[in-house]
Amino acid sequence: MSEHFDAVILANGLFPTRPELLLMLRDTQHLVCCDGAYGKLLEAGVPYAADFYVTGDGDSLSDDMRQKLGPRFIHVIEQDYNDLGKAFRLCCAHDWARIAILGATGLREDHTLGNISYLALYSSQHTASGLPVRPVIYSDYGVMQHVTGHQSFASYKGQQISILSLTPHIPVSAEGLRYPLVDRCLTQWWQGTLNEALGESFSLHSPSGSLILFCEY
Fold first, then answer.
1. Which of 170, 153, 157, 160 is nearest to 211 (CA)?
2. Which of 174, 212, 10 is CA-nearest to residue 102?
3. Is this prediction's pTM over 0.90?
4. Which range marks the domain in which residue 159 is found?
5. Considering only CA atoms, which of 186, 108, 178 is closest in space to residue 147?
6. CA 123/CA 47 separation, integer angstroms
7. Which segments within the chain are labelled E, that is strand?
8. Is residue 196 part of a domain?
9. Last residue of some domain: 117, 140, 163?
């Protein structure tokens, strides 16, 4: 978790408990909370950045909380995007391109799936000044990111790896994994799960595909 991020988004899923994630939450310069997550942050008592915002439709905030937040509460009423999507857009407006997302998984499965799908959407977006957005989800169990084209990743022997294809008609190849893939169309999400790294690196190749990669810590 040595990668530098411009901002951290805290979503309203399972609040992180790993020390490394709490440290990330504490040390970030810019924090954006989905409105439902703000109360969890206060309850946890984790110190957080002076430059922070809370955004969403406000249905999880009391009137007292709204008043105390003042201009740090960015009220967005429209429902075309959930609160995580609104937090992403706020980061893009501030030109924060490298974004770590905590609390995006756990609790309701439909919210988890929806939040993971944002990785693909916002990996194709740009900030206000044109920087490519690079979002990464961190849970207590591992890291999720969006992958296209040909990319290599650091790993360790036995690390658990799963690959989910959002473009099931496009072949995927993988090297350096216990169960290699050679131009395989992953037509079901389970087909690319429960793999593991053989050594210090592995690579994925899907020229025009859209993949979600999960790597265990």
1. 170
2. 10
3. yes
4. 143-216
5. 186
6. 29
7. 7-10, 30-34, 51-56, 73-75, 98-102, 134-138, 142-154, 160-165, 172-175, 181-184, 195-196, 201-216
8. yes
9. 140
> What's residue 2's pLDDT?
61
**Position 1 in a domain:** no
Confidence of residue 184 (pLDDT cuts 50, 70, 90): very high
Alpha carbon dihedral 135, 12, 94, 136, in 10-degree steps, equals: -10
% of the chain beyond a pLDDT of 90 = 94
**Rounded Cα distance, 92 and 186, in Å:** 32
- The answer to whether residue 68 scores a pLDDT higher than 70 is yes
Q: Are 126 and 22 part of one and the same domain?
A: yes
What tokens were used for 190?
């389970």
Domain count, the chain: 2
Question: Which of 140, 174, 207 is the last residue before a domain boundary?
Answer: 140
Q: What is the pLDDT of residues 111-160, one digit of tens each?
A: 999 999 999 999 999 999 999 999 999 999 999 999 999 999 999 999 99
159 class by beta-carbon count within 10 Å (0-12 exposed, 13-18 middle, 19+ buried): buried
